Amino acid sequence: MIESLISYFLTLSVFGKTAVVLNFSLLLIAGFLFRKVVPSGSDGLNIKRARMLRLMNVLLLSIYLFDWMWNYFIYDNGHSEFFKRVSQTGLVLLLGYLFAQFSHSWTIKKYGKDRTIDGKESKTRTYQSEMGYIIILLVTIAVSLLLLINIWQVTSWLQATGVIGGILVILFGTKEAWAHDAVSGLIMLHQGEIAPGVVCRIQSMDILAVVRRMSLTETTFHDVIQKHNIIVANSKLRAVPVEVLNKVDVPYWNDYVEFNIGYETPSEQVEAYAQAVWQKACEIEKQLNAEKTPKLVLVNPGDHAILWRLNFRVESVYRIKQARYALNRAAFDLQTEHGLTLATPLTHQAVK
User: Fold this and answer.
1) Is the entire prediction scored with pTM above 0.85?
2) Which of 7, 192, 288, 304 is deepest in the core (most CB within 10 A)?
3) Is the same domain home to 223 and 149?
4) How far apart are CA 41 and CA 166, in angstroms?
């Protein structure tokens, strides 16, 4: 059987031999290719692309394997012209897929921007990179279709009423499913307000997260508390108010916490208490810098208590919630020590 396989391989044309060797090579290096050469910025997506490439390799090799079994064990009449065309079709699709992936990686490296996301330096997509990718993708699809037409010798496909016309009709009929998201993605990339590394708050979706990745169809957020990914379609993202909490590449963020303290507590005592709260919170949360003194302001002298606001700076935008939790915990623990209470004082009492 081994001799038969070797004999079959030697009788293949130069094209067939090249296709077999190429598929075996890609099958072995698919993981390395998408992890090191053309990475996507997401480990999960790299694994998905590697699996897709390996699946295409296995399918193409299976065509040659079936051709060998059919011609050398059943009819023994040489290579089938049909299987030859099928293998050529698969190779065109494989090369088109690889070219699209390599070209996308090239456009990101050429026109993308260097940004720090969650402490890691990475190249992110921009309007220019995605537009360049769309142009290259359209050219790749057009060339692939022309090659397929030449392989199968079906020039009728070029007619307006042929298969290509049918494909265009399908694309037009399904534009509601993909066009809105793609256009919205291009608009957001062009505006540049929502970009990888930016912390956003979307109250209607209950999202406080960092933009991890943007594509033409969807945006991936990374929740700052639960550390899970949230995927939102671009058309839905543009339809709701989005609060941008920091600028791109600015690691720190300004925030505040508020306390209700009774009128019987003098301001000097409140200031000493706020300083003690700050020092203890800095011990709990490492992204609070003890040297960056917070600012205490009186916001509102209410009917029942005075509303004090403590403005502070978080050194990492990814620790916003944790910083608030640390300050609230420190404020609760130190209230007795400093002779005050955070409970709203009672100004009315029921008389029995």
Assistant:
1) no
2) 288
3) no
4) 36
